[in-house]
Write a structure and sequence with these properties.
alpha+beta; 3 helices
Length: about 120
């Protein structure tokens, strides 16, 4: 992994054989199939911390998904099936797509509206 602060770490590649069609009833496969370029995913590191990465590219030739950090450095590339396994095992989760500013304003308004 590459940490968000720019420190060098291990880059992981996840490859599993098989197709997503063979597991089409799986909700994790549906999650992977629903990912769009620009989606953010949080990946658990071996030390328990998380690294947020943006889906930057999906290869039309190999089907691999490429994730990068905020600086554009490669964090992970994975096959669709390998990525579905990461979601299933709890090592990957979608990051709320609502922009940070919108969440902050919503939380502030909710706090101001709530009776104390």
């Amino acid at each position: 992994w590459l940490e968000e602060d720019g420190a060098a770490a291990e880059i992981e590649e996840i490859e599993l054989e098989g197709t997503l069609e063979s597991t089409s009833g799986d909700s994790h496969v549906a999650t992977v199939n629903g990912l769009e370029v620009g989606s953010w995913v949080a990946f658990k590191n071996s030390d328990g911390s998380t690294t947020r990465a943006r889906l930057t590219w999906i290869s039309s030739a190999t089907g691999k998904y490429l994730f990068t950090n905020r600086r554009g450095q490669k964090v992970l590339d994975a096959t669709p099936l390998g990525l579905a396994v990461e979601f299933r095992e709890g090592n990957a989760s979608l990051v709320d797509s609502v922009p940070l500013f919108e969440r902050a304003v919503s939380n502030l308004l909710a706090h101001l509206r709530s009776p104390e």
